[in-house]
Structures are given as structure tokens and as C-alpha cells.
Amino acid sequence: MFDATTILAYKGKNKAVIGGDGQVTFGNAVLKGNATKIRKLYDGKILSGFAGSTADAFNLYDMFEAHLENTKGDLLKAVIAFSKEWRKDKVLRRLEAMMIVLNKEHIFILSGNGDVVEPEDGAIASIGSGGNFAISAARALAKHADMDEEDVVKESLMIAGELCIYTNQNIKLLKIED
């Protein structure tokens, strides 16, 4: 999908965690290895990650934060309103971009096509070029290892970094705890 990044989010029993690698590529060259592709929104109550260009990320984050403010932080209402606006905007809907947003109650994948996808398991979501590697590892670790949410996200992204040429192992994490 994107030769750009890997973002993985896990909404567990104790924590909501999102992580991303730090690699920025341009064609077949690595431009930067320590980029930050995740952030906290709405006074730290919402976690988000982005796969796509940086300029698009800032534009979409601002747009999404406005919807969070309008809905007083109701993530479900905000993602629906945001998705409608993103889809209706003739320029923005053509962006090759995706977002993951989550809190302790919900986790969603958003796209300019109007997609609002809650993962089937309601707990783990990934986007980006290494997303399938990361989600496979996360599902296996969550099911079979005695690890907390942060460790699952970090180790899964490390595995993706071993397999995907567009993903490195410079992992950054954000979390929301009780």
C-alpha cells in the first residue's frame, strides 16, 4: 500500500498503545531514520498514527482535532464526521494516506475513501508498508506470550523492521493508561 512507514496500535485491557517506526523514504533512498509518525490528540486522551506524506499528516491531524473538539472528545462521533469531511473534499480524498486513531474504548482505521474500519478483534490495527508483518506478530504475541501492550507493540514493530525494507527499528511509542 504505502512504501512509507509502519504504524501499529493495540487497545488492550490495561493500556492503549500506538507505535511507529522512524524511517522516511523517497523512492529507494532513506531520507531520515528517526521521524515521529504518532501523536497524542485531545489533551492526551486520543492516540493517532499516520501513513502518508508529512504535509498531509499535519493537515489531516488539524482537521481531525477540530472534530474531536466539536464532539467533546467522543471518538466515535469524531471519526464519522471526520471521514465524511475527508471524503467530500476533492483534494484531500485523493491523498494516499491512512490514519489510526484510538482511545481506551475504540480503535479505528481511517482513509480518504471514507473508510472507518474498526478491527475485527477490536484490539489491534496496523497501516503502512510493514503493517501486515506488524499485525501478524502482534496477534501472535498477544495470544501466546505473557507481554503487556507496550511490549507487544514494540516487539511487533521490531519484527516488521526486520522484514520490511521501508520500516526501520527506531520505534517510538505513546500510551494511555488508566
Structure description:
This protein is α+β, with helices and mostly antiparallel strands. It has helices at 54-70, 75-88, 131-144, 149-163; strands spanning 6-11, 15-20, 24-26, 29-32, 38-41, 46-51, 98-102, 107-111, 116-117, 124-128, 172-177. A hairpin with a 4-residue loop joins β8 and β9 (116-117). It is globular. The mean pLDDT is 91.
Helix content: 25-40%
Report the end-to-end length measured between terminal Cα atoms. 34 Å
Give me the side-by-side strand order of the main sheet: 5-6-7-8-9
Structural class: alpha+beta
Unreliable stretches (pLDDT < 50, length at least 5) are none
Q: Main beta sheet, described? A: 5 strands, antiparallel
The chain-level mean pLDDT equals: 91
Query: What is the overall shape?
Result: globular
Tell me the total number of β-strands. 11
**CA radius of gyration:** 15 Å
How many alpha or pi helices? 4
In N-to-C order, the SSE pattern is EEEEEEHHEEEEHHE
Active site: 5
Function: Protease subunit of a proteasome-like degradation complex believed to be a general protein degrading machinery.
Protein name: ATP-dependent protease subunit HslV
Binding site for Na(+): 161, 164, 167
